[in-house]
Design brief:
132 residues; alpha/beta; four-stranded parallel beta sheet
């Protein structure tokens, strides 16, 4: 069985046409993409729809952990601090990000809160990019 991100990268991407590319995209891998072996697929999809897809070196678990980030936002703030600093450094070096993606809704919530950038599911960005 494959998750949606891996299935999309392997089966759907070759059949899709990208009509609208993003400029620069920040990519936040997740604990689940790592556990499923789907992080490479996440990055492939991001690179397909963007001129540049950047994974911050300091990425790590966002500590949202289901509802923990809602009940204890300080956990997410502490866990994401290194990645947030890396994102800010990357913006200073290469310019702002046009989009930010991940592959898990609660991670997207945690990273949006931490960085102030709206993180969306990578398949959302793909859908927008392939819409005629």
């Amino acid at each position: 069985m494959r998750d949606a991100v891996t299935f999309t990268a392997e089966v759907l991407l070759p059949r899709l046409t990208v009509h609208r590319r993003q400029g620069r995209v920040a990519v936040h891998p997740t604990c689940s993409t790592e556990a499923l072996g789907a992080t490479a697929a996440l990055i492939v999809i991001a690179r397909t729809v963007a001129d540049e897809a950047v994974v911050p070196e300091a990425w790590g678990c966002c500590a949202f952990a289901g509802d923990r980030g809602m009940l204890h936002p300080e956990l997410t703030a502490a866990a994401t601090a290194p990645e947030v600093a890396d994102v800010r450094r990357l913006e200073a070096e290469g310019g702002v990000f046009d989009a930010a993606v991940s592959a898990n809704r609660t991670c997207e919530l945690g990273m949006t809160r931490a960085t102030g950038m709206p993180y969306v599911h990578v398949l959302e960005l793909l859908e927008r990019a392939t819409r005629p």
